# Entry
Amino acid sequence: MWAIYKGFLEAPISAKLGLLTIAAYLFVAIFAPFVAPYSETEILGGAYELWSERFPLGTDNLGRDMLSRLIFGARNTIGIALAAVVIAFAIGGVMGMLSALLGGWYDSIISRVVDILMAIPSLVFALLILTILGTSITTLVLVIAVLDSTRVYRITRAAAMNIAVMDFVEVARLRGEGLWWVVRKEILPNILAPLLPEFGLRFCFLFLFIAALSFLVLGIQPPTADWGSMVRDNATLINYDDITPLLPAAAIAILTVAVNFVVDWLLHKSSGLRSD
# Structure
């Protein structure tokens, strides 16, 4: 705990601001039912009511409280993006390390399959698959995770191949250590430095990707609150000089910038350069 606190104190102002912003978002996401004044699906008034004491940010196109939906949208959007990026790293990371260690036909087959998947635009591919399989939360998370695991595979494979040729890995193999032992004890600890910043970058990408899918009606489905669909549902208010549709867009932008601040700091730390 002291090491974490010391690392926070040594971080630059931008990274501290990013960490505090991420912590605030996570707090709101975790405790959404206790923080939000109303339910995310409860219809409380007329459509597009103005900001008032009862509705601090007005209501949406169905008369639901915008503030409550923003808060619940944080939980839904962030939670799904986090689940997808964890699964993507589990799939792509394991496959990438195995390709670096095994090589041969396994590496060739997996690499060619990844090349084919990466050649298709992710958004177009996701729209096609979700149209066929449906848009349940489970399907959404798995489709996004599999598509993004191809990028993780490439990065993990490149980093692991540099470690797989090291003497200590050869010694472990000659000592009779198993494949999974080498992966867990020798490869993974030595490639964490580049993978941690990549985790943040992939989270940002998937976060924006899910919002885009929801905007196109193939992401998180109503009545579940989601920032992408909230922009779409209230877009007509822009014609009347109302900034309400920009609130979920601003929430997306602020979190993305905050994560990028932290990622830049992690990349600088992993590079070994001094910050004079």
Notes: The chain has a mean pLDDT of 85. The two ends are 26 Å apart (CA to CA). Residues 43 and 64 are 5 Å apart (CA to CA).
